[in-house]
Fold this protein.
Amino acid sequence: MRVFVLYSLFFVILPLFSQNTGKIQLVGSVESPDIRGLGITYYANPFKDSEFNRTSYKDISRRGDVYVEEIERATFQVALLSIPGYRMMPVFMTPGDSLSFIVKKDEDGRPFFEFSGRNASHYNYSSQEEKAVRNWPKLYKKGNDILQHKLAAQKYRDNQLAFLEDYCRQNPVSDEFYAYAKASINNRYICNLYFPVANRQILKKDIPDGYFEENLRVTNSLSDQYITALWYLHMYNYAEDIYDNFDMVYTHIINDFEGEERAYLMSAMIGNFASRNSQSYSDRLLSAMENASQYTQDEVCLRYIEKAKTFYTLLNRPIPDYVLENTSLIEYGTESKVSLKEVLQKHKGKAIYIDFWASWCGPCKKDISQSEEAKSYLKEKDIVYLYIGRKEKVEKWADASKQLGITENQYMEENSGKSLLAEYFKIGPIPRYVLLDKEHKVFNANAPRPIPSQRVDLEKEIRGLTLVK
């Protein structure tokens, strides 16, 4: 009875919302009382949620038992619908869409959105595809059979394409949605194909002939993983070690591409090099940032580059006093509160490697479990290894520190949800590592991780650090 009443309410509300064809309106409810909130993340441009393009999650407004979301939009829009604790679901939105939805649970107890209304087929596609195509390829790991990895990626792509064609035969979809969905499948395939090289699980020279395909193209800037696929396809098939070949890669982009592709590739290159935060190409990278407007007038690209520049120019600067003095830390074992400024003064004259982590962060704990060799190496180099826990309850942070055996130089940041330190270093996902030189100037704001697969990169940074006078 309750569902019937809510649906009746939808049909009263929706016509009121639909008068403005520039709006997109979603109105719905949830069946399960244990689901207490819904959220949405809008993708404003192809950089999605990248290092210098933070997307913002927002709660969908609730009016009693009804959830209502409205957005003014004159062009197509991609967004992620989310239920806290579960996987986000991408949806393709068209201006003028007015839909009702109910959040249900499938036979395995997983919640999903079920839509009805204008272009409902666009919104229901992702959840139905996820149920139908389950053979996604596993991440390639060093030593695996690379050709078997390709076969798995191909099979997954082909099954997705077959599902898309069947879905479009049975459901009304627009040409724009079809192009977006097909491009997203293609992009995921390119990313799966190039992942082993991009993540240094295998060297390009060790990949057999025929593994990479010549007819691959990246299209549709609205599509999933557009920037990543563009970068992987055109860069990792061009240079064995991109980050040791700045001039070659930059020249390749400027001379061999044009239009939108060149603008996004150049922006992605600047972002990726800035994110690595190395000083080995500092002058050339800053010059590329300054000259970017010669090659694109795209405001999205220029804003992204400006944010990358702001981050990169932290190099060789001390952390400002207003950040140091207003970053309050709890010291493990004493529960006393100290400022970050006091902690750095305690290690005056020594370089510091800062590990931002949390007990709820699986990748953080995995890095910690593999960090003993790196910690020994840093100790030999007289570099302090400093832990700062983030977004934690004191008890959980302390218990995890003890269990993991990382109680030395261990601190937890108070009020880290609104952290000046995190804002200064643009800390989003963790783990994250920052390297300070002996004068506590920023040497690398996104330092290599303390794990075996990044040992070469870490040693290279430390060699550079020891050369600094």
Notes: The chain has three domains: 2-118, 133-237, 321-467. The radius of gyration is 25 Å.
